[in-house]
């Protein structure tokens, strides 16, 4: 079966709000919790994943992501490198992050 322009399935990209909502729901935290100035793992892990997804999937700038979390762009670079590194060595972590795409 040949698909034409009119019959091809439409791929809808997930909105950034839905991405944030899904990550927060998975880690059982609120959006306000991840914006706190707290370095506890329960808040930092979802913050790292969201920062990575906003950069990779939604092409946000480092400054824009930093403003969203009240952090500097250097912190966002650290989050992105951390998540990318974990994804390379841990298959389960890779599947978790990819499930939010």
Q: Notable features of this structure?
A:
101 residues, mainly alpha, 65% helix
What does this protein structure show overall?
With about 100 residues, the protein is mainly alpha-helical. It has one domain (about 15-100): DnaA protein, C-terminal DNA-binding domain (Chromosomal Replication Initiator Protein Dnaa, Chain: A, Orthogonal Bundle), CATH 1.10.1750. About 65% of the residues lie in helices and about 0% in strands. The chain contains six helices and no strands. The protein has helices at about 15-25, 30-35, 40-55, 60-70, 75-90, 90-100. α4 (about 60-70) packs across α5. It starts with 15 loop residues before the first helix and ends with a helix. The mean pLDDT is about 90.
Strands, helices and their partners?
Layout: H1 16-27, H2 31-34, H3 41-56, H4 62-69, H5 73-89, H6 91-99
